[in-house]
Each structure stands twice: as structure tokens, then as C-alpha cells.
Design a protein that fits this description.
Structural class: alpha/beta
Order of helices and strands: EHEHEHEHEHEEEEHHHEE
Shape: globular
Oligomer: single chain
Number of strands: 11
Distance between the termini: 42 Å
Largest sheet: 5 strands, parallel
Strand order of the largest sheet: 2-1-3-4-5
Length: 227
């Protein structure tokens, strides 16, 4: 059974989400404040949905705190017309973002993209563990170790690195990466890819402003270079 935690003070959205999934054997847990959310064990859930405007402790801070201790996929709900908040959410570790008012069918589609991604990693035909240069990749545990040190990646960061590292030297433009990593249902903009590339570089490169592994081919896209 898929388990989803909704952290949102708006009862109407919670009811709409529960109605949309009630016939699909999903378990929906809900809390209406960040204080209630702190009592939850995040690893028990497949996806967490957070409203950025949750109350005394805003959703961005809560997202950051969850990401510091868990890799569970997070979808943030942000105000309409405030695109900088979408970028902020991605910067602090959200896997995906939606603007208010929330289109429940779109939210449902994005949730299913994330679930398919997780299932695909579990079913993938590649080795569950393999090495590329100084990188050790565990596809089942979704872990990356670089020079014997564990690198804490979000779900989308892991997917992006896994795709690039298993296609070394091949250049992919942002449109292709957006479709490949976020799914064809994803209606986001191309800055989403740039934000995740930047975050990956900050985590795996010695100097993110002069990357060694994830490189840019200007006017073309991004690629992974074996050392």
C-alpha cells in the first residue's frame, strides 16, 4: 500500500486528495501544522506533500528539516505567480513543486511519476551495485558513495546522476532531461533541471564552479565526464 503524508492546514485540499485516491488503495495521513508533522516517522511514507504556507514554521523550513534526515520524495505546494518560491523549494530539497490552486489531476499524475520512478529503480535490469571511477552506486538502496564518503542526495538528484553517469559523454539538453527524469506529465520549466544540476555539483564536485564530472556543453546541454 502506498502511504502519503499531507502537511497542509487547508482541509479542502486534503479532502480532494483523499477522494482522488480512495479507490486506489492509497493510505493518506494528514496533519495541519508543522508541530504535528514533527511527531511523524517520515520513513514510513512513500511521498510527503507540504504546503509552503503552513503556519508558524513555514513549509520551506519544514521541508529542509525533513530532507536533512530523510530521502523520502517531497512535493511542495507554493503560491501562484511566485516562481522564485518554486526555485527555493527545489534548492532546499523538494523533488517537485505545484502552484496554487492545485489541480488534483496534475498532482495525481506527478505522484504516479514518482512512484513509477521508485518502482523502476527496484525493477531495473542493471546491477544493483556498480562503480564508475571514484563513484560507488547502489541502485536498490539509492545510495552514492564518492571516495568512501556517502553523499546525501534527494530522489530526483539521485535519478539525474544515475542517468548521466550511466550515459557518460553523451550530451542531453534540458528538455530531454526534464522529460526523462520528471516524466512526460511534468509541466515544470527548464530551470528545474538547472537547479538540480547545480545542487548535484555542490554535492559531488570539489569546486562546483569548476566542475570535473558534470559538465556543460554550451548551447547543447549537460553530460557526465569520467575521470
Amino acid at each position: 500500500m502506498v502511504k502519503i503524508l499531507i502537511i497542509d492546514s487547508r482541509l479542502l485540499l486534503i479532502k480532494e486528495i483523499k477522494y482522488a485516491f480512495e479507490y486506489e488503495h492509497y493510505r493518506i495521513d494528514k496533519v495541519s501544522s508543522s508541530q504535528e508533522a514533527l511527531s511523524k516517522k517520515y520513513s514510513d511514507y512513500d511521498i510527503i506533500i507540504i504546503d509552503s504556507e503552513i503556519g508558524k514554521k513555514d513549509g520551506f523550513q519544514l521541508c529542509k528539516e525533513i530532507r536533512d534526515i530523510s530521502e523520502v520524495p517531497i512535493i511542495m505546494i507554493t503560491p501562484q505567480g511566485e516562481d522564485y518560491k518554486k526555485i527555493m523549494a527545489l534548492e532546499i530539497g523538494a523533488d517537485d513543486c505545484l502552484s496554487k490552486p492545485v489541480n488534483i489531476l496534475e498532482l495525481k499524475a506527478r505522484i504516479k511519476v514518482i512512484l513509477r520512478r521508485i518502482q523502476k529503480i527496484e525493477d531495473v535490469g542493471m546491477l544493483s551495485e556498480f562503480k564508475v571511477g571514484n563513484f560507488e552506486i547502489n541502485t536498490l538502496g539509492r545510495k552514492v558513495i564518492y571516495k568512501k564518503e556517502y553523499i546525501n542526495l534527494t530522489g530526483k538528484e539521485f535519478d539525474l546522476l544515475l542517468f548521466l553517469i550511466t550515459n557518460p559523454g553523451e550530451v542531453f539538453d534540458r528538455e530531454y532531461l526534464l522529460q526523462k527524469i520528471w516524466g512526460y506529465e511534468y509541466y515544470g520549466d527548464l530551470r528545474t533541471v538547472d537547479v538540480h544540476i547545480r545542487r548535484l555539483r555542490e554535492k559531488i564536485e570539489m569546486n562546483s564552479s569548476s566542475p570535473r564530472y558534470i559538465l556543460t556543453k554550451w548551447g547543447k546541454g549537460y553530460y557526465f565526464k569520467k575521470s
